[in-house]
Each structure stands twice: as C-alpha cells, then as structure tokens.
Amino acid sequence: MYAASSSPVAVGKDVLLDGRLALFHKREDWLAVADLHFGYELSQRAAGNLFPFWGMQTIEKRLEELLRDYRPAHLIVVGDLVHDRAAVHEARRLIKQLSRYCNVLLIAGNHDHELSPVVGLVDSWKTKRFHFHHGHRALDRSDRVQIIGHYHPAGTMADGAGLRLKLPAFVQEGNRWMLPAFSPWSSGTDFTPDQRSRVWLCSPQGIFRLEAN
Hints:
Helix content is 16%, strand content 35%. The chain is of the alpha/beta class. It has one domain (2-210): 4-Layer Sandwich (Purple Acid Phosphatase, chain A, domain 2). The longest helix has 17 residues, at 54-70.
C-alpha cells in the first residue's frame, strides 16, 4: 500500500522531506543531504570504465536548486561527499561554489579519507534536537534524533501486473533517521516498513509512503 504526497512533505515537527533527496528544518534553518559520492564517474574512468560525465553536473545542479529554494543558513553533508581520491579537486570546487549560498558543514564518511587535507571535516554535528553523523561507526546512545547516511536506503513499489519501481528512500526508525543517497548512481538497499518504522520513497514528482503490511 502507498500514500502519495506532493513534495515536500512534513516528516516531523518543523521538518520537511523534499523529493529531491534532502531534509530541511524550518526553525533550525538547515538543509541536510548525504552520500553524494561526487565524482563517481571519475573513479570509474580511472579504473578503465567508460562512464558518462553527467553525475557531477546532476548533483551540482540539484544542490543549487535546493539552496535557492530553501535559502538555509547551513548545508549539512552527512558523509561521503566523494567516492574516492579521484574527485578531491572537483569536490573542493563544488564546496567553494556552494559556500556562496550558505555555510557548508562537511561530516566525515567512510569514503572521505582523502578529503581531510583539502577541506574541513567533522565527525559529527549537534543541534538541540538532532545529532548528525554518517552512521558507519557506533555512537553512544543519545536523546537526540540521529540523522545519518551510509545505508543508501531505497524502497520498491509494485503492482499486480508485475511492474516494479525502485526509488531512493528516507527511513525513520524511532530516533534514527536515514537519509537517501544523493548520488544519481546509487541503486540503494531495499527497506521494508514495519510497525516501528516509516519509509518514504522520494522522487522530484512526489513522495510515496510505503505502508507496513
């Protein structure tokens, strides 16, 4: 079962989920994205695979559209800004461009090893209600809602005729919220909702909530 909504949709107090794979908080004035894997095509080409060059352009264009639409004080990249060292210099250019709109906060992910000497990374960031970290390391329990990346959540819609459509997903499991991967290359890991979780499928055309069986 699916419940469809136009984008954006409220997923918490003052929190909006945008179908363009971002989360926005009205009062705290931040916009959060995760798992850009910026320059994935450069990594693939370095390995001898002839990938097209459209991934970086897609990411940059979508981010700038979101920043123009929401005008946040902070853009929070919740880990894995890049895929590997192949895109370090392109990532630095991207951050410089995005910094024209707002403060850009970069949280370290497991793919960001080569970024530390080039841009400033932090392990986590906290507000009164939220704790941002990539999610690849276990942290002490907290009363704050944890907003993480790393898992590349997705969900699948199906009908009785055999049609199946897989989309990036935003997942809420109690006080742990998982952001969809912002990378256009990510196929995602399927999550199925149960009575304790909510799974929201994201697309620019709308947001669909998967209902638990």
